[in-house]
């Protein structure tokens, strides 16, 4: 199980330099990328799709809105809800960083090949869903010791 943690850290390390050169965190990148891929959405859906805790998303959005990378507006179908979307600045940042991220994505995929990477992603998605759906499911210990 420690291999999962080590792999996650190595994967994040591949992106960290690119993102830091553009002064955004990995979590901010996930929000921007999710809005780009899935379009405008409310905070609950955005947190779920970006794999973030709602309480973390609130802080992340404040920073992105302050930099005019994300905009919030009332949902036209339900005035109680806020729709979040990329701003022009957010799109420009994604355009600026997109080629470098695509190169990193490609290098990561090349580690296992496209087919095995797809299988791994599917297996990890099933694992995540199982763990999220059943909070009482036993979770393996990741650290040995008492």
TrEMBL record:
<dbReference type="InterPro" id="IPR039422">
    <property type="entry name" value="MarR/SlyA-like"/>
</dbReference>
<dbReference type="InterPro" id="IPR036388">
    <property type="entry name" value="WH-like_DNA-bd_sf"/>
</dbReference>
<feature type="domain" description="HTH marR-type">
    <location>
        <begin position="1"/>
        <end position="129"/>
    </location>
</feature>
<dbReference type="GO" id="GO:0003700">
    <property type="term" value="F:DNA-binding transcription factor activity"/>
</dbReference>
<dbReference type="GO" id="GO:0006950">
    <property type="term" value="P:response to stress"/>
</dbReference>
<dbReference type="InterPro" id="IPR000835">
    <property type="entry name" value="HTH_MarR-typ"/>
</dbReference>
<dbReference type="Pfam" id="PF01047">
    <property type="entry name" value="MarR"/>
</dbReference>
<protein>
    <submittedName>
        <fullName>MarR family transcriptional regulator</fullName>
    </submittedName>
</protein>
<dbReference type="InterPro" id="IPR036390">
    <property type="entry name" value="WH_DNA-bd_sf"/>
</dbReference>
């Amino acid at each position: 199980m420690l291999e999962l943690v080590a792999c996650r850290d190595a994967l994040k390390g591949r992106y960290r330099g690119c993102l830091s050169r553009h002064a955004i965190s990995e979590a901010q990148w996930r929000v921007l990328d999710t809005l780009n891929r899935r379009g405008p959405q409310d905070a609950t859906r955005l947190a779920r799709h970006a794999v973030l805790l709602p309480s973390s998303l609130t802080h992340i959005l404040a920073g992105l809105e302050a930099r005019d990378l994300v905009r919030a507006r009332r949902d036209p179908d339900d005035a109680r809800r806020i729709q979040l979307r990329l701003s022009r600045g957010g799109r420009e940042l994604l355009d600026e960083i997109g080629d470098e991220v695509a190169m990193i994505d490609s290098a990561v995929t090349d580690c296992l090949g496209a087919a095995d990477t797809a299988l791994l992603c599917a297996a990890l998605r099933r694992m995540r869903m199982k763990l999220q759906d059943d909070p009482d499911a036993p979770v393996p210990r990741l650290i040995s010791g008492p």
